[in-house]
């Protein structure tokens, strides 16, 4: 099974929200969408779900269009809170799971597992509005995965969560992927995509500017980062041939260089001047690549 997006464009009047997007997400993979607000991520998700029709192009899951006959195998966690605040957690999950065709016994078993998994079994009989934002997000996550979907779409799943709950949710996402679910998610936090995804797409004004496997994207970018910690002045390195970016740190400098050979030259040059406490060559981060391709800082 694969999710195939073929030459998809979505226009709202004269505004183009998504422009000629084509990609294939293989079964069992974890795919990340990156982009600032308004980049077209949520619009793409809503077209995948069949909530919006593309202006042109096609979207298929396992070579079939997504409609009411196939949507039961899909889970969706929207960025906005979508729960009924006055309903109790237990009643809400049962209601939503029954809409997915689950029977009462199976719902009870799965709900008990997830409440225990998230360390919140005591909230089963609480109204959603009585829970913290983090725990509301956990309940919303449960509602999107309780029916064990084949395809799971997560729109900013870690938004508003504290670091502890982010890790709990990450572990749950990894577990679901391990069980064979195909996962597509967006995040404002590039480190989350970098940590979890094998493949990704960076969107800018509705258009994909970078698309492919994470390792291939980093390799094709070409540039490298160099971290140097030393007790002597390194400011002259900002004018060194092959250095494209320079930033001073509390212990030294962080450089972006055009190649590994430039890094080698910098090492010989600085080592001759004194003792280096640290000299480290790193692949570029997704943040580096985003800034290069989109030309703006990513908040």
If you had to describe this structure to a student in words, what would you say it looks like?
- With 299 residues, the chain is α/β, with parallel strands linked by helices.
- It folds into 2 domains: 2-218, Rossmann fold (3-Layer(aba) Sandwich); 223-283, Alpha-Beta Plaits, CATH 3.30.70.
- Helices cover 33% and strands 30% of the residues.
- The chain is built from 9 helices and 14 strands.
- It has a 6-stranded mixed β-sheet with strand order 6-7-8-3-9-10, sandwiched between helices. A 4-stranded antiparallel β-sheet has the order 2-1-4-5, with helices on one face. A 4-stranded antiparallel β-sheet has the order 12-13-11-14, covered by helices on one side.
- β12 and β13 form a beta hairpin.
- α2 crosses α3.
- 32% of the residues are buried.
- The model has no long low-confidence stretch (mean pLDDT 91).
The mean pLDDT is: 91
Class inferred from helices and paired strands: alpha/beta
> In which range does the helix fraction lie?
25-40%
Q: What is the CATH architecture descriptor of the largest domain?
A: 3-Layer(aba) Sandwich
Strand content: 25-35%
Quick structural overview:
By secondary structure, this protein is an alpha/beta fold.
Write the topology of this structure.
Blueprint: E1 2-12, E2 15-26, E3 30-34, H1 41-48, E4 56-61, E5 64-65, E6 74-77, H2 89-99, H3 104-117, H4 133-145, E7 151-155, H5 163-178, E8 182-186, H6 190-196, E9 199-204, E10 207-213, H7 214-221, E11 224-230, E12 243-248, E13 252-257, H8 260-271, E14 276-282, H9 286-294
Parallel strand pairs: 3-8, 3-9, 6-7, 7-8
Antiparallel strand pairs: 1-2, 1-4, 4-5, 9-10, 11-13, 11-14, 12-13
Helix pairs in contact: 2-3
């Amino acid at each position: 099974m694969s999710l195939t997006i073929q030459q998809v464009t979505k226009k709202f009047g004269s505004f183009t929200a998504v422009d000629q997007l084509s990609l294939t997400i293989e079964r069992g993979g974890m795919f990340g969408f990156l982009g600032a607000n308004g980049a077209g991520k949520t619009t793409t998700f809503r077209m995948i779900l069949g909530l919006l029709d593309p202006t042109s192009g096609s979207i298929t899951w396992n070579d079939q269009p997504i409609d009411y006959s196939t949507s039961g195998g899909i889970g969706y966690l929207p960025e906005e809170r979508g729960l009924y605040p006055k309903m109790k957690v237990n009643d809400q999950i049962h209601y939503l799971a029954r809409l997915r065709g689950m029977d009462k016994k199976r719902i009870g078993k799965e709900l008990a597992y997830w409440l225990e998994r998230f360390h919140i079994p005591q909230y089963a009989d609480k109204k959603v509005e009585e829970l913290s934002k983090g725990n509301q997000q956990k309940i919303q996550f449960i509602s999107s995965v309780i029916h064990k979907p084949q395809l799971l779409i997560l729109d900013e799943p870690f938004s508003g969560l504290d670091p502890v709950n982010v890790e709990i949710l990450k572990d749950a996402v990894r577990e679901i992927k391990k069980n064979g679910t195909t996962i597509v998610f967006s995040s404002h936090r590039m480190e989350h995509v970098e940590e979890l995804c094998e493949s990704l797409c960076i969107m800018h004004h509705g258009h994909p500017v970078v698309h492919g496997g994470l390792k291939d994207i980093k390799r094709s970018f070409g540039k490298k980062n160099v971290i140097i910690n030393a007790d002597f002045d390194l400011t002259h390195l900002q004018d060194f041939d092959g250095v494209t970016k320079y930033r001073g740190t509390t212990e030294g400098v962080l450089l972006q260089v055009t190649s590994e050979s430039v890094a080698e030259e910098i090492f010989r040059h600085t080592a001759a001047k004194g003792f280096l406490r640290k000299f480290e060559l790193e692949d570029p981060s997704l943040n580096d690549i985003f800034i290069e391709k989109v030309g703006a800082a990513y908040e």
